[in-house]
Amino acid sequence: MKIFRTLFIAALVVSGGVLASGDDADLDEILRNPTIGNYKGYAEFKMARYDSARRIWEALDRAGFGEAAFNLGVLYEDGLGVDANIERALSYYRRGAENGSVKAQFRIGKLFWLGAPGILPDHEEGRRYLAMAAANGDSDAAAYLADGPEPRGPLAEADRALATGEPKRAAEILAAAALDGNVRAQTRLAWCYEAGRGVDRDLSMAVQWFERAAQAGDPEAMYALSVMHATGAGREKDDELARQWLERSAAGGFAPAVAELIR
Questions:
Q1: Would you place residue 106 in the very low, low, confident or very high pLDDT band (cuts 50, 70, 90)?
Q2: Distance (Å, rounded) from C-alpha 33 to C-alpha 25?
Q3: CA-CA distance, 245 to 242, in Å (whole number)?
Q4: Threshold 0.85, pTM exceeds
């Protein structure tokens, strides 16, 4: 029954708009149930309500919830609802990594491995974080470590484009790989459309690519679909489909989905 309670609470984001008000009681509920709160934050993000998502994640970050710090890093790296600030993004990624976010471990490891606008390459620092992510089951991080300083494949090529400040080219590389059947590229392209990174923000396109990747077995895409069906953000609200995708994502080992189910 916990999962149904999770989905019901997450649905309040759309049906009542409670989070947009910054209500203290709602933040108290988020802090009592951090995985549920993080789920709410994803829903707000998907609807481009970045200020509301940020308030949720800031509250969770203060409580030491690693995924919230990672999400705040994304906001500051891409300038979503805030001024882009790579140093602040790195600070959040570091905190998220130390607080157990595998996504933060991989993100900061990749940034140091390749460099980025405002970040000089540092293979020692990059290797440290990539090793943390790989030890926690991140296959992309393991691939970076296996390939060494010159990672191969379309995902690495897209990452190098981002590292040189070319998000449009990165999205084009991901799109070509996605059309060619690369499942991880499909999920990455979906995130590009959701955040407007290198392409115009288009939630309907994001959904199409998330669905394609989820059907092909990518747990991260499954989680994204779960949020969408639970909240009605980008897809018709359907608690049963949300539950199914969440369970499949958790079965595939996606950490946020696993955490969601054990609450």
A1: very high
A2: 13
A3: 5
A4: no
